[in-house]
């Protein structure tokens, strides 16, 4: 639907490498609406919850430490029609080795452990993750004046 929302964040390596505007710009240019955005250093607990589905994997502890200790993350909520699925296509495959050129990972990353960006992977994930990272009052309630030029 038009008001579907998803969580996207630029990981610490993306912030340190100065890739924030490049990454944000892709969602803006595609036609999505930014409804929340903050530069945060997520707590270890938040990150462990976020990646909970990975808790049995050998890289889980390292992943959570990296995400919470390496520096700030740029967390965003993007809104628009089919934004959840489209964002997954825009970030590319988890392993940058197989991510298509034109995607964030295919253009800006080389290694799975430093793959620069996150996007929720479905409707349930998006709702859960937005709640985990943002308070309701941090999310703008807005329709976008550009919508008639994006959707028929
Ligand atoms: P995605 O970030 O594309 O949704 P995922 O949910 O499967 O991928 O994994 C979450 C993160 O965990 C991923 O962005 C990087 C890390 N990760 C996944 N597989 C990994 C692996 N084989 N080695 C190291 N880190 C990995
Ligand atoms: Mg995932």
TrEMBL record:
<feature type="active site" description="Pros-phosphohistidine intermediate">
    <location>
        <position position="118"/>
    </location>
</feature>
<protein>
    <recommendedName>
        <fullName>Nucleoside diphosphate kinase</fullName>
    </recommendedName>
</protein>
<feature type="binding site">
    <location>
        <position position="105"/>
    </location>
    <ligand>
        <name>ATP</name>
    </ligand>
</feature>
<comment type="similarity">
    <text>Belongs to the NDK family.</text>
</comment>
<feature type="binding site">
    <location>
        <position position="115"/>
    </location>
    <ligand>
        <name>ATP</name>
    </ligand>
</feature>
<feature type="domain" description="Nucleoside diphosphate kinase-like">
    <location>
        <begin position="3"/>
        <end position="141"/>
    </location>
</feature>
<feature type="binding site">
    <location>
        <position position="59"/>
    </location>
    <ligand>
        <name>ATP</name>
    </ligand>
</feature>
<feature type="binding site">
    <location>
        <position position="94"/>
    </location>
    <ligand>
        <name>ATP</name>
    </ligand>
</feature>
<feature type="binding site">
    <location>
        <position position="11"/>
    </location>
    <ligand>
        <name>ATP</name>
    </ligand>
</feature>
<feature type="binding site">
    <location>
        <position position="88"/>
    </location>
    <ligand>
        <name>ATP</name>
    </ligand>
</feature>
């Amino acid at each position: 639907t038009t008001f579907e929302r998803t969580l996207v964040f630029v990981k610490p390596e993306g912030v340190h490498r100065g890739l924030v505007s490049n990454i944000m710009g892709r969602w803006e240019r595609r036609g999505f609406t930014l409804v929340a955005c903050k530069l945060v250093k997520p707590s270890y607990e938040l990150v462990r919850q976020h990646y909970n589905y990975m808790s049995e994997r050998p890289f889980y502890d390292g992943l959570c430490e990296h995400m919470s200790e390496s520096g700030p993350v740029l967390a965003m909520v993007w809104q628009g029609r089919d934004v959840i699925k489209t964002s997954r296509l825009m970030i590319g495959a988890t392993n940058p080795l197989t991510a298509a050129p034109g995607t964030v990972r295919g253009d800006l990353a080389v290694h799975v452990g430093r793959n620069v960006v996150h996007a929720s992977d479905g409707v349930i994930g998006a709702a859960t993750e937005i709640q985990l990272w943002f308070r309701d009052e941090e999310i703008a309630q807005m329709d976008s004046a550009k919508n008639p030029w994006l959707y028929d």
